[in-house]
Design brief:
Length: 135
């Protein structure tokens, strides 16, 4: 079984409303997909009452804690010293989500304990070799 990291965190959905909605989301990392992280939003915030999962590069999240990162569907940037913003672009619109930075850092540290930075390709090769042995 491959090392996995799962961490619940609180996020604030930023909108034009006077009060931002706070939701519990889950951060996930799995060494079977060592280059990616997942942010899982609960069904209550989706358009179709299903869990919403955004998958993007672990390096994008890590870089976004220090400086604006990303130029596609996912963008991440620091907001002051203790918060981080995640901007998600979809055909239905744009979602802006704010996190406290400390839990994101803890999540990334745990993911790097599972698969150190720079070892992701090696992890993929090991998984490929194991798969070939099982054929």
């Amino acid at each position: 079984m491959s090392p996995a990291v799962e961490q619940p965190v609180t996020a604030r959905l930023i909108s034009d409303a006077p009060h931002h909605k706070t939701v519990a989301v889950t951060l996930r990392y799995d060494s079977d997909d060592p280059l990616a992280v997942r942010v899982v939003f609960p069904p209550e915030v989706s358009l179709d009452d299903d869990e919403v999962v955004w998958t993007f590069a672990r390096d994008l999240l890590s870089g976004g804690l220090r400086a604006p990162s990303g130029d596609g569907d996912v963008r991440v940037w620091p907001c002051g010293r203790v918060q981080t913003v995640l901007e998600l672009h979809a055909p239905e619109g744009v979602a802006v989500v704010q996190f406290d930075t400390a839990p994101l850092r803890r999540f990334l540290q745990a993911s790097y304990a599972a698969v150190p930075a720079g070892q992701e390709q090696k992890e993929l090769e090991i998984e490929r070799h194991i798969g070939n042995l099982l054929l």
